[in-house]
Amino acid sequence: MNVSTDASPPGQWTADELMHGKAGEEFSTLASPTPNGSATISGSPKKSGRFSMRSMKTSGKKSTDPLDWGMPGHLTQEEVDVFMKFRDEVEKRGGEFKNTVYSFSLIEGEAYCLGRWLRARKFVYDDVIAMVEEATEVRADARKHDFYPDPVSALGCGPSLFMHCYPQLYPGKAKNGCPIFISKPGVLNTDAMECITSLDGILKFHWHVMMHDYKKRLMDHKKAHPDFCNFQTVTVIDLEHLSTSQLSKRALSIVKTQTAIDSVCFPEIMNKTLVINAPRFFSMTWSIIKGWIDPRTASKIELISSRKSWEARLKDLCDEDEIPSDYGGKGPPTTNALEKEYSPEGVMQEHFQLVHVGSSGHYNVEVPAGGEMEVTLWSRSVNEVIVSIVDQNIKSKVYVGGVSFTHTGGTSDNDKPTSLLLTKERIAGPAKLKVKFESKAGRFASAGNYFVSCAVFEKK
Q: For the whole model, what pTM was predicted?
């Protein structure tokens, strides 16, 4: 996964090109609406017989668009001086310092890769060096484990369980080639997440996503489209169903765990962010926050509550085939895309349910004809429960007798939960099952939360 430190990135730019661009190429950073409502799309150099960088240079005019600031072709002389000094330092140090800078590989190209780091610290050389040194230290432990190539080992559970609790996916590519990332914090289920993994597991999984999933998407697109050089993301943050009660300490810790890595180790990867379906309390908060951040960052973030408006904006940025149907496009709905991406091999269907057990509790689930089901239980509750699986209609028909289950590990955020495969033999369909819980904690005590995972396989 590391960069060969003996290699040089392709396509070195001269000082003149960093300031004025390469002749015959026009550079822009993202899709933005033109006055007639269409979109101007780029992110890769655009070859144009009519465009002349020479005329731009002789006119002496520089772009005033804040999104062009710090981009190749738009640097000032002072910024070029810092760029050259940083480039020399990266090559001189090599090793893990260089690997950190070129975390998405040398294929990104030095002008765009180094530019991301420089923009993140506003071309203040010492601050840029300090940032790379910090990032090198932050990623050191993950690097020892090759950034966790196996997502199951990273999380301690299947990724499909994680995605059920916190849906996140890359459904396609924007018109400028950037991956589209959809995140749904409005339906983040922290109680369920606590049952299946730890903050340490979430951290490891995020390393896996960035270095084995996101990186691969960028590299694959670059190989198919050599001119692609904008290694960023068009992000949709869907806040539908978000309430103030969901903004718990644990929920914020989950989000913070992911963003902390990105802000230090993967700077300037936000191309455009649409925050959609925002509740009123968030909209009011955003109007305040927006005044605190620099205009360039603020211009990349759009808060759109009207579905009609955000669907139209998505179509400005992305072709309809790349947008999930539940977001107004023609692509597969996000539920189907997540199932296709993360369902374990051989699994026909998966069913999940968080069960809160007071003195008792249950979950009903059906096994389809031609299928057979495995049922797994997850929790970090230290209270003992007796779990059984019976027929919903014929109570005397018992598939799994009373099984004692208790979390045996620690209770901190970084301790792993306990899991138990209840079905030593798969239950054949058709069948209507009831997973029953009986607490041993006493009549007036709450046993806690238990996550039930049901996987349906084709009957052998």
A: 0.87
